[in-house]
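Quick one, tokens below:
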């Protein structure tokens, strides 16, 4: 059954100048190329659209200078894969000189090369490393890259040997193809010394993930019912576990681990065609509700009224409805605690 979300309930994404004071985080979509072809890539359409109009170093430097003047203190390099852009190291050096705190989202391939890592790692404050399995067989199959798992593990080793390493977050997209192994994946990552924080992400319905949505998307309750046990396992391993794209009610006792509760407003800069010419566009997000939707069932939920939960992905609702949601009353919100 298809559930249609009304158009006027589309999530809020600010397209004008900041309205809520200075935004300190910049998400810079500076790469439209990648050295992997993950089956669930949510960026594939954007990459196809802009791959033939890559950003020049001059353009990139102008952006980071301008955004620093606007008050940004933190930069996230977003792709595609940022490290395969030839000017990445030069841009990283400039941002450090400007005093930005730096975060790289990466698949780890280029970062596992000794010479590249030697230059890049000391300039990074934080990294998000994408890893979607606990074995080569599983991870490499999902990303269509034979040695990817091995390269990530080499990178973990390098990070583990650093005196002062970046803060390391891993990101695992949970989908039909790996949910049977999600406990093994969390167990495996909990044992990696270099990892500080584990993120389990619901599939983001965009790009290739949207194209293959029904082949890949799990029911929210499938991950939700495992969440308290997964969170406890990560804590035992000395890690923090967080969930992206999961409504609070579905996480049960693990609701405090929703990544949405730890989200900061941000400004994005990305490639766009303006009057038919390749330019750059600024947008602002003040909440994590991009592509999310509150079904009618959320109406009386205390977490909606307290603006803690941003609902479900609209695409999820359109395909699966609201059967997995269980609105909470005020009393249960204040009384709930993680075990
Ligand atoms: S019922 Fe709706 S608002 Fe409440 S926690 Fe669930 S998804 Fe969020």
């Amino acid at each position: 059954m298809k559930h249609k979300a009304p158009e006027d309930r589309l999530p809020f994404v600010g397209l004008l100048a900041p309205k809520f004071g200075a935004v300190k985080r910049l998400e810079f979509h500076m790469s439209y190329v990648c050295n992997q072809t993950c089956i669930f890539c949510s960026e594939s359409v954007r990459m196809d659209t802009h791959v033939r109009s890559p950003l020049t170093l001059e353009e990139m430097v102008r952006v980071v200078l301008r955004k620093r003047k606007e008050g940004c203190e933190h930069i996230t390099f977003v792709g595609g894969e940022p490290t395969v852009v030839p000017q990445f190291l030069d841009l990283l050096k400039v941002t450090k000189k400007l005093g930005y705190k730096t975060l790289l989202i990466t698949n780890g391939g280029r970062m596992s090369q000794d010479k590249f890592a030697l230059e890049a790692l000391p300039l990074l404050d934080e990294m998000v490393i994408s890893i979607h399995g606990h074995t080569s067989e599983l991870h490499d199959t999902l990303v269509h890259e034979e040695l990817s798992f091995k390269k990530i593990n080499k990178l973990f080793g390098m990070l583990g040997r650093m005196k002062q390493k970046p803060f390391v977050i891993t990101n695992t997209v949970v989908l039909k193809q790996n949910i049977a192994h999600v406990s093994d994946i969390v167990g495996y990552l909990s044992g990696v010394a270099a990892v500080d924080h584990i993120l389990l992400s619901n599939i983001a319905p965009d790009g290739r993930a949207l194209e293959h949505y029904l082949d890949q998307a799990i029911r929210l309750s499938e991950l939700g019912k495992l969440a308290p046990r997964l969170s406890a396992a990560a804590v035992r391993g000395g890690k923090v576990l967080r969930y992206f794209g999961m409504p609070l009610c579905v996480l049960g006792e693990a609701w405090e681990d929703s990544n949405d509760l730890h989200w900061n407003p941000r400004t994005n800069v990305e490639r766009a065609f303006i009057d038919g010419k390749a330019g750059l566009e600024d947008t602002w997000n003040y909440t994590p509700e991009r592509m999310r939707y509150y079904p009618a069932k959320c109406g009386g939920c205390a977490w909606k009224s307290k603006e803690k939960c941003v609902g479900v992905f609209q695409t999820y609702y359109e395909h699966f409805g609201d059967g997995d949601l269980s609105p909470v009353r005020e009393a249960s919100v204040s009384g709930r605690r993680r075990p």
